[in-house]
């Protein structure tokens, strides 16, 4: 159990904004960041993944190519 005054500190929101999201960093390393961004933009605009099927397929195909290349 943590004692009062333990060393854990919550980072400020300013520090959080400067740090890249781990998921975004991982997707960037796959080479599929463009497809992921397009999918995110479609989802933000349409609010329904069913209307974003071309983007879903493009992202899925990119990730599948990446996985096949690693095998």
From TrEMBL:
GO terms for cellular component: mitochondrial intermembrane space. Residues 1-25 are annotated as: Disordered. Residues 14-23 have a biased composition (Acidic residues). InterPro entries: Coa4-like. GO terms for biological process: mitochondrial respiratory chain complex IV assembly. This is COA4 factor. It comes from Nycticryphes semicollaris. The lineage of its organism: Eukaryota, Metazoa, Chordata, Craniata, Vertebrata. The gene is Coa4.
